[in-house]
Amino acid sequence: MMLKGKVAVVTGGSRGIGYATVEAFLKEGAAVVLCASREETACGAVTKLKETYPEAVVEGIWPKLSDYGEVEKAFAQTAAKYGSLDILVNNAGMSDSTPFLDYTEETFEKVMDLNVKSVYNCSRAACAHMKKQGRGVILNTSSMVSIYGQPSGMAYPTSKFAVNGITLSLARELGPFGIRVNAVAPGIIGTDMMKAVPKEVIEPLVAQIPLRRIGQPEDIANAFVFLASDMASYITGVVLSVDGLAKV
Fold this sequence. Notes:
With 248 residues, the chain is α/β, with parallel strands linked by helices. It has 9 helices and 7 strands, in the order E-H-E-H-E-H-E-H-E-H-H-E-H-H-H-E. It has helices spanning 16-27, 39-52, 68-82, 105-133, 145-148, 155-174, 192-195, 199-207, 217-228; strands at 7-11, 31-35, 58-61, 87-90, 136-141, 179-186, 239-242. A 7-stranded parallel beta sheet has the order 3-2-1-4-5-6-7, sandwiched between helices. It starts with 6 loop residues before the first strand and ends in a 6-residue tail after the last strand.
């Protein structure tokens, strides 16, 4: 098992890419604490996982990720309970497609709070424990739009470009303490949100992807497993595109 004996925290872990990542980490032997926005959502995901993996060590927490105090407390409790905090996956986030001139300050700040501030808060809280351990892995969910932009909803690619900057900068700063920092930039992924998109919209997008399919949450989860494992021990500061070479 690639992650046996490791303790991981995965934000946005109750559905989509986050849930697939939690599941993949459990299969590889990690103990996983998944973060969700609400208690019932976190507990529901944990119940489902325990039904499938009765021997797995998994629990849910629901701190407000934009509140550093709540995050710090939750992560400290996790490290105290399990003896370490080895892996953090900053996956919680929201997309947006608001036209530029329709943005309000509140809308822009909402995207930034979840997509950027939460990455800062969680990374800072986790780093305190990882630095003491002399090791750790921080993984961030970026997006293909951080590279190519998108025609509407500029706050989302802006936030993911910021995630790339956090990734590269922390990789340089935290490397001397044995902490690796990388990101995965998904392309078009078959999450629940994408499944609701009409077929006539999806087909032209798929036609432009050389692999001729959209990705699945498991494709991203597998990338996270590799980057979290010792097999990637000399990889840091990378924003790994997992997009089927999607240039759409």
